[in-house]
């Protein structure tokens, strides 16, 4: 089999590098050399960019992309267009060529408006797809950065960790127990080992393929193939098949549209028959009924909804929330419970050690951030270190039992942490007593370790020293460390850990935790020689307790306000954390998630939840606000229990173990910064700033979008129904046609879409987050809204006929009368657009924010403009058969429309009164 070249279209001057499979067989230095990559620094930025220009982006050739032409063509495939074409045909038959041309023009104009709107929506959605697409951690020019995966080029050095998707085909250059799930390619879901050297009897053991998932371990690799040249690309398979972008709401609207279409065509046929029976001109009647059908079919509905979703998601992007599934936007507005992680989402995850507790002593630590300077004081006086052997041991322990790394930023005084912030804070405090991490590790090399896991909540590292002795350091949650400690470190050596000592330590833990501090316990165990068997049971026992370390983590900015907003909006916030209940409770109170006087039932621990049966759990969670000592695995159970109680749950997560809960939640929210690819793929929304308040902003947008769609659809239906009723009443009572077919088309095809767009683009009103959440099973148009639509269209229809009758009595001719009918119907419906924009607002002040936004004003001005030119511009007068209205006629139009508006407002108040 001949593999395609690695770099296609490369200029002849550039030596053609070997293909991916050829590279797989080479040694690591040879691969790096072939691709010009430095093992530490990666590719120089300039080389990477040059290569990008020749190789192109790392994505598979797009298939079946919906281009602008397709969107344009789609505008002509609708019942409305077919009806119009037949109307145009009839006009030709009756030799009314101007009208035939005008109808065709209307078709084109209408298609164009639809095209522009849909194109705008699509462009926003595509931009969103690019933004929320896969990313890759790479090292280029010596710096580590996160890039969109499409920017990768052959030769890039990528860093892979558990939970990451492999972003291209990659040759392993460094591996620490790397295991990869290749089921995306092979269907085989048992993870396989990958290594730098070929593993015997295992094909491709040095290659990672795009689309596979790092199941465990970590490693570095160099990209050997991108885009279509990857194995997945050659299989011609897209990893993330573009799922149907139709949301349930859009589908519902299309269904409604279809039903209304059938209904209108039936009604129109009946009306045509009645008209003919009343001796109206047959052709005229046919045209009118077709025009009526066109007017009545709410062809704008799906367009309005699509645009609302697109624009809304773009607003969310600005607020730092990326929607991965459009359908989530609808659900967002129904959210009743937000389950959020504490550390990193509610709090900044910037830890600073503030207190130390040693055997019968309490010390305070000063300083901020990860800077390793500050004082340690006891009863207000600084401590003189070399004498304080317990403190030195504590500091040695926290620095050695540590996987983080702190460094200052390019020689400035700003310090950063790489790794776990909890551990960074420990390195900073060790620095404050002059212990540097690297120097300590040189002296006491790490020989073995028992890594941290959330089940044990401890970790242990084992170190040797020059004198041949060994020591194990353990740190973890106070209860789990105390449980395996039997003695306590004192100034003179060590003593047996008495019950009193243990109680004293527990009291201090409670005291510090109740201040909202995260508390870790630290212990050690001297080993006379190298341990034979390094496992939890043999090492983590008979420990000597050294002390407690307490650190603070401040709430993120904006979180307090966001929590308050949720309260007003009827959304329950539940905090989830691995920390102990006392710490969790204190932070929850500070953030106002928990009221100070709230009952004990609001705080639950993982061990309590574990013991409960499912119905009992659902009951317990009804009142819960804080869940402490929970593991990611428990999140799934929690989501299910809440859902079984009818809640609509948003759940945050970032790790591999969070993925099932994210998938199960109604809204899975992944953290953009801290999150793994797996968590992101399982989520329906990604928060790019990892901040709780962004979730709340997204919920708010979800509510606004839904409410706007609802109001806009209600308006479009009012407009359609009013047109139908006007004509229907006129035909049935035999008072002659109140407006001409072309005028109806102008009104419904061209004018009405603008108020519809105006309503849907509104940024939302101030009352959005002071209403309770909408129920998920609620219909788009409730019975109350349906009644409003009927009432409003009836009033408008009667007003139009009234205006015509009034003018007839005042002696107007036929052309004036239809013009008055057209103008009154238009004007009254524009009044109704304002009314619908403000629908649902509880107070005039809130209504003002709902009605007078720039999208509404601009679109309404366009509509008024279209009305004025239809009446007064001679060119359009000729087409639409209108005539300039005098001051009196126009006064009647305006007066009658205003009266209809006032009447609908009054009736609406009365209808709402009667209901409540
Ligand atoms: P959170 O939900 O706030 O992120 P974690 O699940 O990360 O909390 O941590 C749970 C508990 O595990 C902590 O309260 C602490 O007692 C312990 N712990 C966390 N990180 C470490 C660590 N690096 N070393 C030892 N113990 C840790
Ligand atoms: Mg954590």
Provide structural commentary:
This protein has 35 helices and 28 strands. The strands form four sheets. Strands 10, 11, 12, 13, 16, 17, 18, 19, 20, 21 and 22 form an eleven-stranded mixed beta sheet that branches. It has an eight-stranded mixed beta sheet with strand order 8-28-27-26-9-23-25-24, sandwiched between helices. Strands 1, 2, 3, 4, 5, 6 and 7 form a seven-stranded antiparallel beta sheet that branches. Helix 30 runs antiparallel to helix 31 (814-837). Mean pLDDT is 88; it is low at 1-17 and 239-244. Bound molecules: adenosine-5'-diphosphate (ADP) and magnesium ion. Adenosine-5'-diphosphate binds at residues 341-343, 420, 422-423, 452, 454, 457, 459, 475-477, 518, 520, 577-579.
Supply the key terms:
916 residues; alpha+beta; 8-stranded mixed sheet; binds magnesium ion
Structural class by sheet pairing and helices? alpha+beta
Largest sheet: 11 strands, mixed
Bound molecules: adenosine-5'-diphosphate, magnesium ion
Radius of gyration: 35 Å
Low-confidence stretches: 1-17, 239-244
The assembly state of the depicted protein chains is single chain
Shape: elongated
Count of helices? 35
- Work out the strand percent: 15-25%
Q: What is the CA-CA span between the terminal residues?
A: 77 Å
- What level of helicity do the residues show? 40-55%
**Would you tell me the overall average pLDDT?**
88
Number of strands: 28
């Amino acid at each position: 089999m001949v593999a395609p070249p690695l770099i296609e279209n490369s200029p002849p001057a550039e030596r053609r590098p070997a293909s991916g499979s050829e590279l797989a067989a080479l040694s690591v230095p040879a691969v790096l050399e072939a691709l010009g990559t430095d093992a530490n620094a990666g590719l120089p930025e300039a080389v990477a960019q040059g290569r990008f220009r020749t190789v192109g982006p790392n994505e598979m050739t797009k298939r079946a992309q919906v281009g602008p032409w397709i969107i344009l063509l789609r505008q002509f495939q609708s019942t409305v267009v077919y009806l119009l074409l037949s109307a145009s045909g009839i006009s030709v038959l009756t030799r009314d060529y101007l009208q035939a041309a005008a109808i065709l023009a209307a078709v084109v104009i209408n298609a164009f408006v639809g095209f522009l709107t849909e194109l705008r929506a699509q462009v926003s959605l595509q931009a969103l797809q690019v933004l929320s697409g896969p990313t890759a951690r790479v090292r280029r020019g010596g710096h580590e950065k996160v890039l969109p995966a499409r920017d990768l080029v052959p030769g890039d050095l990528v860093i892979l960790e558990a939970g990451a998707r492999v972003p291209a085909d990659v040759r392993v250059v460094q591996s620490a127990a790397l295991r990869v799930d290749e089921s995306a390619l092979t269907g085989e879901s048992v993870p396989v080992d990958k290594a730098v050297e070929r593993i015997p009897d295992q094909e491709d053991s040095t290659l990672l393929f795009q689309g596979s998932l790092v199941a465990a371990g970590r490693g570095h690799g160099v990209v050997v193939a991108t885009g279509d040249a990857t194995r997945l690309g050659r299989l011609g398979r897209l990893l993330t098949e573009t799922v149907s972008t139709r949301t349930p709401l859009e589908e519902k609207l299309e269904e409604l549209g279809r039903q209304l279409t059938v209904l209108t065509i039936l009604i129109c046929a009946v009306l045509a028959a009645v008209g003919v029976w009343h001796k109206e001109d047959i052709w005229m009647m046919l045209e009118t009924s077709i025009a009526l059908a066109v007017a009545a079919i709410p062809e704008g509905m799906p367009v309005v909804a699509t645009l609302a979703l697109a624009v809304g998601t773009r607003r969310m992007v600005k607020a730092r929330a990326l929607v991965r599934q459009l359908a989530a936007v609808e659900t967002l507005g129904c959210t009743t419970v937000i389950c959020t992680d504490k550390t990193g989402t509610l709090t900044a995850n910037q830890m600073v050690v503030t207190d130390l507790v040693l055997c019968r002593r309490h010390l305070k630590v000063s300083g901020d951030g990860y800077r390793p300077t500050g004082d340690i004081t006891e009863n207000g006086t600084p401590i003189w270190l070399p004498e304080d052997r317990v403190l030195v041991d504590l500091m040695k322990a926290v620095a050695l039992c540590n996987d983080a790394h702190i460094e200052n930023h390019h020689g400035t005084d700003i310090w950063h942490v790489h790794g776990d912030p909890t551990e960074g804070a420990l390195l900073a405090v060790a620095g404050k007593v002059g212990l540097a991490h690297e120097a300590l590790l040189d002296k006491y090399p790490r020989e073995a370790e028992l890594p941290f896991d959330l089940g044990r909540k401890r970790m242990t590292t084992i170190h040797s020293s020059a004198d041949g002795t060994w020591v194990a350091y353990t740190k973890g949650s106070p209860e789990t460390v105390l449980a395996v400690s039997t003695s306590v470190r004192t100034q003179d050596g060590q003593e047996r850990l008495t019950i009193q000592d243990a109680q004293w330590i527990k009291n201090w833990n409670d005291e510090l935790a109740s201040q909202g501090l995260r508390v870790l316990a630290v212990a050690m165990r001297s080993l006379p020689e190298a341990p034979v068997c390094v496992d939890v049971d043999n090492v983590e026992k008979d420990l000597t307790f050294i002390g407690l370390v307490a650190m603070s983590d401040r709430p993120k900015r904006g979180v307090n306000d966001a929590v308050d907003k949720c309260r007003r909006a009827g959304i329950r916030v539940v905090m989830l954390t691995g920390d102990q209940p006392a710490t969790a409770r204190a932070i929850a109170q500070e953030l106002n998630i928990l009221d100070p006087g709230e009952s004990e039932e609001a705080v639950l621990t993982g061990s309590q939840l574990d013991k409960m049966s499912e119905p009992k759990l659902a009951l317990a969670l009804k009142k819960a606000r804080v869940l402490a000592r929970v593991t990611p695995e428990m999140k799934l159970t929690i989501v299910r229990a809440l859902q079984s109680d009818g809640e609509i749950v948003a759940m945050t997560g970032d790790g591999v173990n969070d993925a099932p809960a994210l998938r199960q939640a109604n809204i899975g929210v992944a953290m953009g910064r801290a999150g793994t690819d797996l968590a992101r793929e399982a989520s329906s929304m990604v928060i790019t700033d990892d901040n709780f308040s962004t979730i709340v902003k997204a919920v708010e947008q979800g509510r606004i979008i839904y409410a706007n769609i609802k109001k806009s659809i209600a308006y479009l239906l009012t407009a359609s129904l009013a047109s139908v009723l006007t004509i229907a009443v006129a035909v049935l009572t035999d008072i002659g046609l109140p407006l001409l077919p072309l005028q109806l088309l102008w009104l419904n095809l061209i004018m009405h879409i603008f108020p519809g767009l105006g309503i849907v683009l509104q940024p939302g009103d101030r009352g959005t987050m002071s209403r309770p959440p909408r129920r998920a099973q609620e219909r788009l148009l409730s019975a109350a809204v349906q009644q409003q639509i009927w009432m409003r269209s009836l009033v408008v229809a009667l007003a139009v006929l009234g205006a015509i009758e009034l003018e007839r009595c005042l002696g107007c001719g036929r052309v004036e009368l239809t013009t008055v009918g057209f103008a009154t119907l238009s004007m009254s419906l524009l009044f109704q657009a304002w009314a619908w924009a403000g629908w649902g607002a509880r107070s005039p002040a809130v209504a003002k924010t709902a009605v007078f936004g720039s999208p509404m004003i601009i679109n309404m001005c366009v509509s008024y403009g279209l009305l004025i030119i239809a009446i007064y511009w001679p060119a359009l007068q000729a087409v639409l058969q209108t005539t300039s209205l005098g001051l009196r006629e126009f006064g009647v139009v305006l007066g009658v429309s205003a009266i209809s508006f006032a009447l609908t407002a009054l009736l609406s108040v009365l209808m709402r009164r009667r209901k409540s």
